[in-house]
Amino acid sequence: MPAKKRKAPNGNAATAEPGPEATSTGTNTAPSTDGEQNPAFVLSKPLSVGYEDRQIPELKSPHDVLVRIRWTGICGSDVHYWQHGKIGPFVVEAPMVLGHESSGTIHSVGSSVTTLQPGDAVAIEPGVPCRRCVPCKSGHYNLCPLMAFAATPPYDGTLTKYYSVPKDFCYKLPEGMTLEEGAVVEPLAVAVHVVRQANVRPGQTCVVFGAGPVGLLICAVCKAFGASKIISVDINEERLAFAQEYAATGQFRTQKGDTPMQSGEKLVKECGFEDLGGADVAIDATGAEPCISAAIHCLRRGGTYVQAGMGRDECTFPIMAACTKELDVKGSFRYGSGDYKLAVELVGSGKIDVKRLVTGKVGFKEAEKAFEDVKAGKGIKILIAGPE
Prior knowledge:
It is a single chain. By secondary structure, the chain is an alpha/beta fold. Among the domains are: about 1-20 and about 130-170, no CATH class; about 190-330, Rossmann fold, CATH 3.40.50; about 355-388, no CATH class. It contains eleven helices and 21 strands. It has helices at about 75-85, 135, 180, 185-200, 215-225, 235-245, 260-270, 290-295, 320-325, 340-350, 365-375, and strands spanning about 30, 40-45, 50-55, 65-75, 85, 90, 95, 100-110, 120-125, 125-130, 150, 160-165, 170, 205-210, 230-235, 250-255, 280-285, 300-305, 330, 360, 380-385. Strands 1, 4, 8, 9, 12, 13, 20 and 21 form an eight-stranded mixed sheet that branches. It has a six-stranded parallel sheet with strand order 16-15-14-17-18-19, with helices on both faces. The chain has a three-stranded antiparallel sheet with strand order 3-2-7, with helices on one face. Helix 4 (about 185-200) crosses helix 5 (about 215-225) and helix 4 crosses helix 10.
């Protein structure tokens, strides 16, 4: 069932006309934005994007902050909306600002904000939950049915000059961490959540299907969590080579014509898991049915499987193997409590290097080129600069 729609608490809803910057919340501001425009990169319908001037979002709560967007990364969901105008039940029915992987600097803060001040560099967590439902109250706010998530209809995204967000969804970057690195915190937080779902512990063996940006970051988080062996699985030799250089300890290339069971069995044999009966943890970051099945088949009895990649609504699943091995099978969706904070700390401490994943940067007026490059599979992570 699609999530219920509600007005975004940050004033960035695509269905609402944002007002001018508010003063009723007692904001503490940097130099005034009076008369300045708020350019935004907007999707009107599939394959139809352009630039619009939007009003600067108002701070509707004394706990809100206004962020000057500096860098935004592009991921597969952004490209899917650009290409098709929808993802599952979420359909673009009105012009929507794209983007959700962003960093920036604080422009102004509400009167109750004491932890941030104008000029601070921050990473933005782009989904704001209702804070009142059962998932929110039980500590799983990423499962909130009323989540207002950037660039998910009807909510506007972050490819704009100014974006308002509650203070607790902005994470101050530690000294030495760049704003470019801050823009990669969002996919890293996804990886953190996945690896925490898998409960990866020191000394464990992990297999990660998919060597795209999230798959690579999952390998990096597994390494940071102490996994002793991390196998990256893909069909692209170049990406496999990068994965092993970046964070994986080994690689496995699936062969055309092999069944998923054959792939899983070959992986166990070729990657040195035979004595263990398989890997401790398998994570699929592709959403592809053959990878899902192969991941189940490469696990040891009592192992853990986590689904990170989103694919078709339904697929054939090796349920007999999952049952007879008594596997712990879990899903993973976005990020939850503590994931963003940990992602920032992993980068700030030097345990994970995200700079190596940034393979391209474009100016704000060349934003569509970034979408084209991601669709074409060029590079790993491409960033779009914020408007001047």
